[in-house]
Design brief:
- By secondary structure, this protein is an alpha/beta fold.
- Helices cover 46% and strands 14% of the residues.
- It contains 17 helices and 13 strands.
- The protein binds iron/sulfur cluster (SF4).
């Protein structure tokens, strides 16, 4: 029992987080920057921060994640990191030759108070940035928010720098994606392609963090949103922001900057959220929904109908990121499952509002919480008080799942002990089928393990 000290007795805590259900801001900024073609993320802080962020992403995607660091020493920690960043920009452009350096800050540089905007302006004034190349930035102080805040800040950073309004509209739709897997970003493009809608997807980590083995290492793989695509976003017909926590801030900035109207939707996870996305995309682009997508929807409904008897009334505990949890909880309710415990380490009122709307009418006994005190320890205590039939979350959930003998579906970030998440989508109708397969598989594996011999069935 690895978590044997967790008890079911909950003590009110005001200044202690135990096993947080989140990670730090720069991890998100780094992931978002990798979704832009030819972009090298740069961590303005100490080497340790950068190593940790790269490691977290490398372990999740099983791909080498490239990022540079300002490598603060004791001197820069006292006097500021300007000299380090100026040197870094010069060195990176001469050795690695990226198109963009995307700088994010860390706790240390934020505490010192480095003005990264001013330092990057100096790199331009001092001609350290070659013609046609760019340095962009965002602030990611990790003592507030989470990796989700960092992701949102970096995407908004790209919007601050690139989109331009020329007055000549382009028949395309911007899709600003929340934090999802490369497979999910590919699925968004597949759906748009099936609907014959031209989109610009920002960021886009497909073909960056799920690249085929060719035997040749590319520092900058072929995927990622290109600079011309980002510039053109200022002339698009409209924007769909997928995920209020990750994508809405960038969409607001784009509207303010280039007057491109936006709609915010939940990530298209599950039946209803995917319905809303397909409807919004077809309206925005003024196209009808093709038969292939209607058929995918029908297949998901068929699968739900067939599997419903195994899912009905099952109690589920979930933890992770708010943009993922909200549509996921809605999907579980659609399946007649009972999401009874939900926690997210990312702060923000919209999470509670969304849970109130989805859960209060159908699962009034549900407990949910987000922010600093909403940690894995609390989730485990709730589970100890009244057990669940399924746990959904990232790899850190395996300790609770093992101690309490709960079927466990890995979803979210980070997943360090399994593969597949970056290759098979969770988004869209096809992603819904994949998710449902995993949920059902986990539940039925336990049923098979524990069934009495006379009840051990070959057929479902
Ligand atoms: S929390 Fe702050 S100090 Fe720690 S790794 Fe993240 S940025 Fe660095």
């Amino acid at each position: 029992m690895l978590l044997r000290h967790t008890t079911d007795k909950i003590t009110e805590r005001s200044a202690l987080t135990i096993n947080p259900a989140k990670t730090c801001q720069p991890v998100g900024a780094m992931y978002a920057a990798l979704g832009v073609h030819g972009c090298l993320p740069h961590s303005h802080g100490s080497q340790g921060c950068c190593s940790y962020h790269r490691t977290a992403l490398t372990r999740h995607f099983k791909e080498p994640v490239m990022a540079a660091t300002s490598s603060f020493t004791e001197g820069s920690s006292v006097f500021g990191g300007q000299a380090n960043l100026l040197q870094a920009v010069s060195t990176i452009f001469s050795i690695y030759k990226p198109d963009i350096i995307a700088v994010h800050t860390t706790c240390l540089s934020e505490t010192i108070g480095d003005d990264v905007n001013q330092i990057l302006q100096k790199t331009r004034d001092d001609k350290l940035v070659p013609p046609g190349k760019h340095v962009v930035h965002c602030n990611t102080p990790s003592y507030v928010g989470s990796h989700i805040t960092g992701y949102s800040n970096m995407v908004a950073g790209f919007i601050n720098y690139f989109p331009q309004k020329t007055g000549k509209k382009i028949n395309q739709i911007n899709i600003i994606s929340g934090w999802v897997e490369p497979s999910d970003m590919r699925e968004i493009k597949n759906i748009a392609s099936a609907m014959e809608v031209k989109i610009v997807l920002l960021p886009d980590t497909s073909d960056v963090l799920d690249t085929p083995m060719t035997g040749k290492h590319e520092v900058f793989p072929k995927g990622g949103t290109t600079i011309p695509e980002m510039v053109s976003m200022g002339n698009s017909r409209s924007t769909i922001a997928l995920g209020p926590f990750c994508a809405e801030d960038a969409a607001i900035k784009l509207e303010n900057k280039c007057k491109v109207k936006f709609t915010t939707l939940e990530l298209p996870i599950g039946l209803k959220a995917t319905d809303r996305f397909i409807t919004a995309l077809s309206r925005a682009a003024n196209v009808s929904v093709p038969e292939s997508i209607t058929d995918d929807r029908g297949r998901l409904i068929d699968m739900i109908t067939d599997m419903h008897k195994y899912l009905y009334g099952k109690r589920v505990a979930l933890f992770g990121d708010p943009d993922t949890l909200t549509p996921l909880v809605e999907f579980l309710v659609t399946l007649d499952m009972k999401p009874v415990y939900v926690v997210s380490g990312t702060p923000g009122k919209r999470f509670e509002e969304a849970m109130n709307t989805i859960l209060k009418p159908v699962v009034p006994e549900a407990k949910y919480m987000n922010g600093q005190r909403a940690d894995m320890f609390l989730l485990h205590q709730w589970i100890k008080q009244e057990p669940v039939d399924l746990l959904i979350g990232n790899s850190y959930g395996k300790y609770i799942a093992r101690d309490e003998n709960i079927p466990f579906v890995r979803l979210g970030f980070p997943i360090m002990d399994r593969v597949g998440h970056s290759y098979f989508p969770t988004l869209g109708y096809k992603g819904g089928m994949h998710l449902l397969t995993n949920i059902l598989g986990a539940i039925m594996d336990k049923m098979d393990r524990e069934a009495l011999e006379e009840k051990f069935e070959l057929v479902m």
